[in-house]
Design goal:
Strand content: 15-25%
Shape: globular
Structural class: alpha/beta
Radius of gyration: 14 Å
Largest sheet: 6 strands, mixed
Helix content: 25-40%
Number of helices: 5
Order of helices and strands: EHEEHHEHEEH
Strand order of the largest sheet: 1-6-5-4-2-3
Distance between the termini: 35 Å
C-alpha cells in the first residue's frame, strides 16, 4: 500500500472527485443509522458504474458492506463479474471480506480514505493484497483521509452521547 500524494499521482482520474461521491454515500449511511462508509467504482473511461453504502443494520445482513453493494452494482452494470480496468474508492479501509471480494472481482486499483485499525486489510491489521493470489490490486490509502476520518469520528461520538 502506498499513501496517496497529489503531486505523485500520474493518473488521468480526479481521485478526489470520486472519493467525494463516496463521502456523500457515507453521509447517507450515517443519516440512516449505519456506519458511515461509502464506495464508488469507476470503469476505465471514468464512468461511475457502481455505488454502495453500508446497510448492515437496515438489512440485518453481515455482508451488506459498501464495497459489496458497489461491486454488485458494477457487475450488473457491465454484465460481467470481472471488473478489470475498474477503480474502487471507499471511505474506510476494506475489511477482509471486502478485500477478498475486490481481489476476486479483479478490480485494478483501490483508493481508500481512513485507516481501519480494527479490521483493515490493506495494511492496518493485515494486508490481503500482498498475498500470492492470481490477481494483483494496486492499493492507495489516505485519499481525503481527514474528511473520511472525521465523518466516522463524529458518527461514533454521536452514538456514545
Amino acid at each position: 500500500m502506498r499513501k496517496w500524494n497529489r503531486e505523485e499521482d500520474d493518473s488521468l482520474f480526479d481521485h478526489e472527485h470520486y472519493m467525494s461521491i463516496a463521502l456523500v454515500l457515507a453521509q447517507e449511511a450515517a443519516e440512516d443509522g449505519e456506519s458511515p462508509v461509502g464506495c464508488v467504482i469507476a470503469d476505465a473511461s471514468g464512468a461511475v458504474i457502481g455505488r454502495g453504502r453500508n446497510r448492515r443494520e437496515k438489512k440485518r445482513i453481515a455482508t451488506a458492506h459498501a464495497e459489496i453493494e458497489a461491486i454488485e452494482g458494477a457487475c450488473e452494470a457491465i454484465g460481467d463479474w470481472r471488473l478489470s480496468g475498474c477503480t474502487l474508492y471507499v471511505t474506510l479501509e476494506p475489511c477482509p471480506m471486502c478485500a477478498g471480494a475486490i481481489i476476486m472481482s479483479r478490480i485494478d486499483s483501490v483508493y481508500y480514505g481512513a485507516r481501519d485499525d480494527v479490521s483493515g486489510s490493506c495494511g492496518s491489521v493485515l494486508n490481503l493484497f500482498m498475498e500470492p493470489f492470481g490477481h494483483k490490486t494496486r492499493i492507495v490509502g489516505g485519499l481525503l483521509a481527514s474528511e473520511c476520518s472525521e465523518l466516522l469520528r463524529s458518527f461514533f461520538k454521536s452514538l456514545r452521547t
